[in-house]
Write a structure and sequence with these properties.
This is Helix-turn-helix protein. GO terms for molecular function: DNA binding. By secondary structure, this protein is mainly α. It has a domain of 73 residues: 434 Repressor (Amino-terminal Domain) (Orthogonal Bundle), CATH 1.10.260. The chain contains six helices and no strands.
Length: 105
């Protein structure tokens, strides 16, 4: 699984690699075909439960799919920023700082 691809591209690739149609995957996930199409086109965000169901369907680690989805959210929110890479580095430092302080409480 290539994490540089969008979540939607990843799902589409998994579906086509497994020779499944939108309808077949949507039926298995108990969602509308149009909703799955929107997810594959990155026009709709999946729920945590849907990510879990997709991971089960394609035998993929749920954490990997969650990372793919959340990284899309972060990337799209700062994509147009000139300092995007620097922002990500500082955000990582802040997360480490917050987690460290949280553990010490």
């Amino acid at each position: 699984m290539q994490l540089e691809k969008s979540f939607g591209e990843t799902i589409r690739d998994l579906r086509t690699e497994n020779h499944l149609t939108l309808r077949e995957v949507a039926e298995h996930l108990k969602i509308d075909t149009s909703m799955l199409g929107k997810i594959e086109k990155n026009n709709r965000n999946p729920s945590k439960q849907l990510i879990k169901d997709i991971s089960i369907l394609f035998s993929i680690d749920e954490d990997l799919l969650t990372v793919a989805h959340l990284s899309d959210t972060v990337a799209y929110s700062i994509l147009e920023e000139e300092l995007a890479t620097k922002v990500l580095k500082v955000a990582e430092e802040k997360i480490n700082y917050y987690n460290k302080n949280k553990a010490n409480k």
